[in-house]
Structures are given as structure tokens and as C-alpha cells.
Design goal:
The complex is a heterodimer of chains A (187) and B (461). Helices cover 44% and strands 17% of the residues of chain A. Chain A is α/β, with parallel strands linked by helices and 187 residues long. In chain A, strands 2-1-3-5-4 form a 5-stranded mixed beta sheet, with helices on both faces. Chain B is globular, with a radius of gyration of 22 Å. The chains are: A alpha/beta (187), B mainly alpha (461).
């Protein structure tokens, strides 16, 4: 460690010269100042972000916390016994089409439940554009459909023919509140 | 939080802790260690869930398998360490945190709490639309069907899985949440990805605060964490059930491990890099591009290691194997079922489409869009652009370990730009739906790099 002698001008200069690199290293570099400035810009919108977060976590949104998913279903799945009964009319190689978008929260549990009950039959969701293609590729003349609808037979067929253009006619085999099981003949 | 998500998170953390401890690859400091433990646990838990799907083992078994796996690893590690270490009294060497570190840590804890609360409140909406439904949740439902006996091709097609070639890490974690709850998780399936958003804030802080800077690292770490939290990207991407938060999370740990590996000799950094790269590549397809960007940056900044602590050849091979095995498994799965990516494997090759894109002047459109995004007030993507400025200086000046981070940001910026130029989709739609989200992958890394830069020069010791 260099020592400065008071009043000794050359000594003081020598000391300064030897201390200088250390002082310089403690001084922030241009890069560090630039980096700190850039980072500082990131901190500026914090107030707005905190306000957004506070809105997001408003008390009204906490009702669901702690409630299992299964209890938060908007509609109960269709009665499994009824579905099992209608499926018993189909052969294992038959297609069963499901008249709702499978990822709709209302019908997803029903769809998955139906798939379990229907196995090994293939269950396809209508509303997905790939379902008609899969049916066409299979070359079948008729399919069975569980359509979740309160409409009458004609209105159900009108809806069906929109998503399954190959449908020629449909015959209701059985129905219940909010659902209809149909045999659909294809062109 | 429901019991199902709590159980799923706990099993993931327990398995992660066992693995990180056995591999001795934890990053320094609790703030970074806990998020890294979760990340590693997620990869290992997903592997167990994948095995359950292939073997068609039922609902609760994967969690039992994860817990048993963690217990076995912990037992083996304890025995090995017990055999090696002599019986000596443990020395009490507690590194007390400074007052600054305690205050900054409390602020970060509040930020993490806010991020977790925001994510939980988001779960009031079911997962029914957009990418989080059609790509990720749909694939989780397809895995459930495969496990119940459906053929993979039929399940993926019947459930209308979009981008069926995307890596399965996220869907497998969603499947574990469903398993823990005993049914399809329509609301809380996104929880594993939401934890990545929370962990990201803790990790950014922890990785800066534990660095050996010459100025106050906790405050710089807090600034970086605040910058990440304040960006619109974090509030959008990190509370949905998409994999973008996990990509950013894994990239941050990979870049940190690479930079520390160049700064100081320690085998733990190499192991952490291998694990982070593996997670990065199976989190989302963009992870492959980012992993390529990082590896190129490291190759560009190559520093010769001294021979003293260099890993043996078999250890180096093992690390490469760890990094490459998960993406190779995904590739094999995709190849087996003919699943292709729309960007890279359409009828016309990506190179030809890229040339067409340049000829059609798409590059200008993409640059203009990126420019607008970078200058936008809330996206925080300006950090990526600023990092690219540093990268350009690194290209022509002396190279330092921290330049790896800047070069990775620049390579990602250019790489994503090229993807948009050669996209098979309508360009405005693709930019609107994806640009801000994927540029956000590098935002935490850029914030971390600037914080480290501000605290002191990055040097090799």
C-alpha cells in the first residue's frame, strides 16, 4: 500500500498515480451506466402494472378459489345410464358423433364421459371441421349422433347438416331433456 | 388453490429437489434455487406422466411414481454422501444476508405474491379458447384418451389438437393436475405454467443478487424483477396455460449457467446448462431456435478452459445426452405419428418460402412491426432491442462472458424475424398473434443481463 508523505509533492503525485486504477475500477463504466438507464426505463411502468394487477385480483374474482374443477361444471353431464342404453343400439364399429365442440367447458366432461362409455366405438365431435372428413374417409353410410339440443327433430337436423353436409336424413331413436339420440343417414 | 394443484405442485417440487440435490447443480441462493428446482421437477414429472401414458397406467399412479422416485433418489444420494463424507461436526458458516438484501427480498416476495394472485384470479375463466385450449389443453385431453386406450393418431385428430407436433411438456403437466383432481382440469390445468411466471420473477432477482458484482446486487436484481413484472408480456403470457413463460424461464437459467460457466470453473454450471437446455427444447418449438442461438453465442465467445477443473470426457458426453434426450424423444414421437410443423415442414421448404418472403418485401413489414413493438410503452421488448445494441458491440470488440446473453438476444431477434418472413400463414395475422408473445421469451434474460452489467463488469476469473 503506497504511503503519501504530507507536504511531499512528488510523493503525493506518486500516490495518486498508483491509486488511480483502483478508483477508476470503482467508477461505473459507460456500459454499466447505459445498462442501468435501460433497466430504469423498465421500472417506470411499474405503477401502471401494479394498478392492472390490483384490478385483476379484485375480490369479485375469488369466489371460485378452492372449489374443485369437477364441482364448477356449468351443466351436469348427461345421464350415463341413458347414454349407455342408447349406445347399446350401435355396433362397436359404428361412428358416434357428438353434437358440440368438445372443448366447450359445458360439454367437455360429457364428451369425455361419452367417449369412455362408447369405447371401442369412435366418438367424433361435430363442430370440428375434421369430423366430417374422418367420417368420409371411413366410407360409412350411417352414423349415430348424440346431439345436445332442445330443438325439435327438424331444427336439430338443420343444425346437423350445417356441420355434416353429407347428412341426408336423421331419425330420432330416443331423446331426453336437452339431448337427442339419432341415426343419421349419409348421402 | 385447489388441493389438486397443491398436490401436483408439491410432488413436482419434491422430485425436483431430489434431482437437483443429487446432480449438485443448484444455482446459488434460495431465490434462484427454488424456481430451478420446480423447473427440473417439471421435466422429471412430465417424464413420469409420459411413461404412464405409454404404459396406460391410471390416474393417481403417476403422482405415487413421482413421490417414490423422489424418495429413492434422496435415499441413494444420502447413502452415497454418507459413505463419502467423514463424520465431522457441521461447521456453522451462515452467510448472513445484508439489510439491503432483506428489504429487496421482501419486495420480490410481494411481487411474486402479486403474480400468483393475478394468475389465480385468471383461473375463473375456463380453458376453452385460443392457443391455450386448442394446442395445449386439447393435447392434455388427447393424452388422457391415449392412456384410456385410444390410438395416438385418433385421439389427436378427434380432439382437434392444433399443432399436434408441439412438444408435450406442458400437456403432460396439465395431465398431472387432472390426475391429482380426479377429473379433467378445465380451470386449473394452466397452473403449472402459471408457476413459471411466478418463478421467473424470483429467478431474475435471485440470479442477479447471487452474482459477484461490485455494486449493490440486490437492488439491481429487484429492478430487473420489477421490469419483468411491469411488462405487458408477463401479465399476458404468464397467467395463461401456454408454454411461453416456461420457455423464458428455461432460457434465463440456461444463459445464466453459460455465462457463469465462462466466468468461473465449476462443474455445476455445466450440469445446470444441460438441464436448462433440455427443458428449453421440450417446452416449445421456439426453444430449439433459442437453444441454437445460445449455443452459437457461446461458440462465438469461446474462452478456453484451464485443464484443472475441466470435466472428464464421459461427463461431458453425459451432459450432452441429458440435453439432447428429451428433444430427441419428442422428435421420435412426431416422426412415428407423422406430426409436422407448419413452419418447417409444409409442401414448400422453409428456405424457399424465406426467399419468396424476401422477394415479396416481407422483411420490411416484419422490421417495421418489430420496431413498433420495441418502441411500445408497455411490452418491455425494448430490452431485447437494447441488448441487441450491446451484442453488436460484442461482435466487433473484446468479448466478455456476459456478451453471451446479448448475442443470444440478438440471434433470437433475428431468428424470430426470419420465421415471420418465411411464415406459411398470413403475415399480419401471424405477427399480431405471436410477435409480442415470442419476443417476450428473451425479455427476462435481457433484464437479467442489464442488471448484471449495472452491478459490475463480467469477467472470467
Amino acid at each position: 500500500m503506497p504511503r503519501a508523505v504530507v507536504g511531499d509533492e512528488p510523493g503525493q503525485e506518486r500516490t495518486r498515480a498508483m491509486m488511480e486504477p483502483q478508483e477508476r475500477s470503482r467508477r461505473p463504466s459507460v456500459r454499466a451506466i447505459f445498462a442501468a438507464t435501460v433497466l430504469g426505463f423498465g421500472v417506470v411502468p411499474f405503477a401502471a402494472a401494479a394498478r392492472r394487477a390490483a384490478q385483476d385480483v379484485a375480490p369479485a374474482r375469488w369466489d371460485h378459489v378452492g372449489v374443485p374443477d369437477q364441482e364448477r361444471r356449468l351443466v351436469d353431464p348427461a345421464n350415463p345410464e341413458q347414454i349407455r342404453a342408447v349406445l347399446s343400439r350401435t355396433a362397436p364399429e359404428d361412428f358416434v358423433v357428438f353434437g358440440a365442440w368438445p372443448l366447450d367447458p359445458v360439454w367437455l366432461p360429457t364428451f369425455l364421459h361419452l367417449r369412455r362409455l362408447a369405447a371401442p366405438r369412435r366418438v367424433l365431435p361435430l363442430g370440428d371441421e375434421r369430423a366430417p372428413r374422418a367420417i368420409a374417409r371411413a366410407g360409412v353410410r350411417e352414423v349415430y349422433g348424440v346431439f345436445l339440443s332442445n330443438e325439435d327433430e327438424a331444427a336439430t337436423f338443420a343444425l346437423l347438416s350445417k356441420v355434416l353436409p353429407a347428412a341426408e336424413s336423421a331419425e330420432t331413436l330416443t331423446s331426453g331433456p336437452g339431448w337427442r339420440f339419432q341415426r343419421v343417414r349419409l348421402k | 388453490m385447489t388441493l389438486a394443484t397443491l398436490l401436483s405442485t408439491l410432488t413436482t417440487l419434491v422430485l425436483g429437489a431430489a434431482l437437483v440435490s443429487s446432480l449438485r447443480c443448484a444455482p446459488p441462493g434460495i431465490w434462484a434455487r427454488l424456481p430451478f428446482t420446480y423447473l427440473v421437477g417439471a421435466l422429471a414429472s412430465a417424464a413420469v406422466a409420459a411413461a404412464a401414458v405409454v404404459l396406460r397406467i391410471g390416474s393417481f399412479a403417476p403422482h405415487v411414481g413421482i413421490a417414490l422416485g423422489a424418495a429413492v433418489i434422496a435415499w441413494v444420494v444420502r447413502r452415497r454422501r454418507g459413505a463419502r463424507a467423514p463424520m465431522v461436526a457441521k461447521s456453522v458458516d451462515v452467510d448472513r444476508p445484508s439489510k439491503h438484501a432483506i428489504i429487496a427480498g421482501c419486495c420480490v416476495a410481494l411481487l411474486c405474491l402479486a403474480a400468483a394472485a393475478r394468475a389465480t384470479a385468471w383461473n375463473v375463466a375456463p380453458i376453452v379458447q385460443g392457443d391455450e385450449s386448442e394446442i395445449w389443453a386439447a393435447k392434455a385431453h388427447a393424452f388422457e384418451q391415449i392412456r384410456r386406450g385410444a390410438s395416438p393418431a385418433a385421439a389427436l385428430e378427434d380432439l382437434g389438437v392444433a399443432h399436434a407436433d408441439y412438444p408435450p411438456l406442458n400437456p403432460l403437466l396439465q395431465l398431472l393436475v387432472s390426475d391429482a383432481g380426479g377429473g379433467v382440469a378445465i380451470y386449473t390445468g394452466r397452473r403449472p405454467m402459471q408457476w413459471c411466471g411466478v418463478g421467473l420473477i424470483a429467478a431474475v432477482y435471485g440470479l442477479v443478487a447471487s452474482a459477484r458484482g461490485r455494486r449493490s446486487t440486490p437492488w439491481a436484481g429487484l429492478a430487473a424483477a420489477v421490469a419483468v413484472f411491469s411488462g405487458q408480456w408477463h401479465s399476458d403470457a404468464c397467467r395463461q396455460g401456454m408454454s411461453d413463460g416456461m420457455v423464458a424461464f428455461a432460457l434465463l437459467f440456461a444463459v445464466d449457467a453459460a455465462v457463469r460457466g465462462l466466468e468461473e470453473e465449476a462443474p455445476a454450471h455445466g450440469r445446470r446448462l444441460a438441464l436448462s437446455l433440455a427443458i428449453l427444447m421440450v417446452a416449445k418449438n421456439e426453444g430449439l431456435l433459442l437453444a441454437g442461438a445460445l449455443v452459437s453465442a457461446v461458440a462465438f465467445c469461446k474462452f478456453r478452459r484451464s485443464d484443472g477443473a475441466a470435466p472428464t470426457e464421459w461427463r461431458r458426453r453425459l451432459r450432452r445426452l441429458i440435453a439432447v434426450t428429451p428433444p430427441a424423444a419428442v422428435w421420435a414421437w412426431n416422426a412415428a405419428y407423422g406430426l409436422e410443423n407448419d413452419v418447417t415442414s409444409a409442401d414448400v421448404g422453409f428456405g424457399a418460402r424465406l426467399m419468396d418472403g424476401f422477394a415479396a418485401g416481407r422483411a420490411g413489414d416484419v422490421a417495421a412491426y418489430f420496431g413498433e413493438l420495441v418502441l411500445g410503452p408497455t411490452t418491455a421488448t425494448y430490452l431485447v432491442a437494447a441488448a441487441s445494441v450491446f451484442a453488436v458491440t460484442a461482435l466487433f470488440g473484446p468479448r466478455r462472458p456476459l456478451d453471451v446473453a446479448y448475442l443470444t438476444c440478438l440471434a433470437a431477434f433475428v431468428g424470430y424475424g426470419l420465421v415471420f418472413v418465411g411464415t406459411p400463414n398470413p403475415l399480419p395475422w401471424h405477427l399480431d398473434t405471436a410477435a409480442a408473445r415470442i419476443l417476450g421469451h428473451v425479455v427476462p434474460t435481457a433484464a437479467w443481463a442489464f442488471a448484471r452489467e449495472a452491478t459490475g463488469e463480467s469477467r472470467r476469473t
